[in-house]
Amino acid sequence: MNDEPNAPSAPLARTTRRTLLRRAGLASLGAAASIPLAEWLAACGQPSARRSITTPSPTSAATATTRPTATPDARPVTIVITGDVMLARSVNSALLASSDRFPFNYTGDYLSGFDITVGNLECVVSTLGAPQPKQFTFEANPRAFARLQTAGFDVMSVANNHSGDYGKTAFTDMLTHLPSYGITPLGGGANLTAAHQPVVKTVHGTRIGFLAYCEIGPENFAATASTPGHAWLDPALIRADIAALRPQADFIIAFTHWGIEYQLAETAHQQAMARLAIDAGADLVVGAHPHVIQPYEMYRGKLIVYSLGNFVFDLMTGVEGLGNVLALTVQGSRLLNWKLRGMQIGSYGQPTWR
Question: Which of 64, 230, 299, 313 lies 20 to 30 Å from 104 when distance is taken between CA atoms?
């Protein structure tokens, strides 16, 4: 699949919380650090809710009129989304034996250059639990968290058929530790309600909302009203989730784990579910799981990418060793441009650019 001609401009540099606070002139960064960033950004430039009943003196009034008015930050937001990131088996062994950024030595700089970096974590990262009765079970050492962090990942979907490979305890352990590395888990939680909670990231005044779903068994990985797990791809719940998220987000992305492994085209069911999500109010749908690249289409002016393929995965050769990452530029509710960048898997599952 070739890159689209409407490629986004170079990724914007990340602006840290400390830099934002320093620009605002806050003398005590320590005190300001307790303010949630999303709330601080939302309040930036807004007048105080309190009103003084004291009539300003002519001098103070004149001074006030010379102060510049804060300009809202309306810069575009850059987002990159990868396919399956599987950090177990020989990838785990090579990770533990290395002291660099493996398996992101060749791709980490690119990924970390975006405002928001998202991937599908196709394994459980923990030392707990025991393998579940299924053909393939993937568990990676917790040292993998730091490697994901150095590659710039902000959000990782756990809505897939391997996040529960070592049971509910290991799954919960992973959810607990991801935020410690600045990574927000998506599509999984302590119960059904938590698993279906969206992740909303506000950057440059644009609110990007994410939802993630899986429909690949075993179904006992799915969260219930009282047990942890991931969000199952259910049409009624998709509609309800998007309707609830719509007032909170300018642009909604649904990340789906679906399709048939090694099949180069999407199924009619994938197409129907993707279009259902768009009809319900999603602005973009992107998928993974088939371990190969699948086509994209535009539906009602909205982009659907059926499968990005693998990103980090060992023992994959030929077309299975090829994948895409999706780079987006969004401003408010508009998708300004997008591009699929090709990569290929090298030794021990490490990706390089094509």
Answer: 230
Instruction: For tokens 């006030």, name the residue.
Output: 64
Q: Is residue 14 in a domain?
A: no
Ranges of H-type helices in the chain:
17-23, 29-32, 37-43, 58-66, 89-97, 108-111, 143-150, 167-177, 192-195, 235-245, 268-280
Structure tokens of 289?
């799981």
Return the closest-CA partner of residue 217 out of 235, 199, 239, 232: 232
Residue 324, strand partner residues: 342
Cβ atoms of 308 and 286 within 8 Å: the answer is yes
CA–CA separation, 149 vs 116, rounded Å? 12
The pLDDT tens digits for 267-305 are: 999 999 999 999 999 999 999 999 999 999 999 999 999
- Cα–Cα nearest to 326, from 351, 293, 301, 352: 293
Domain count, the chain: 1
Query: According to the 3-state scheme, what is the secondary structure of 273-294?
Result: HHHHHHHHCCCEEEEECCCCCE
- How many beta carbons lie within 10 A of that of residue 64, not counting itself? 9
Place of tokens 């119960």: 191
Mean pLDDT of all residues in 21-46? 38
- Per-residue burial over 285-297, b if 16 or more Cβ lie within 10 Å, else e, is bbbbbbbbbbebe
Asked if 114 contacts 81 with a C-beta cutoff of 8 angstroms, the reply is no
Question: Does any domain span residue 70?
Answer: no
The Cα–Cα gap between 316 and 122 comes to: 14
Q: What is the CATH number of the domain that holds 240?
A: 3.60.21.10
56 inside domain: no
User: Would you say residue 275 lies in a domain?
Assistant: yes
Question: pLDDT tens for residues 244-262?
Answer: 999 999 999 999 999 999 9
| Helices H / strands E in the chain, number of each | 11, 18
Contact 192, 184 (CB under 8 A): no
Say which range, 57-66, 204-213, 321-330, has the weakest mean pLDDT.
57-66
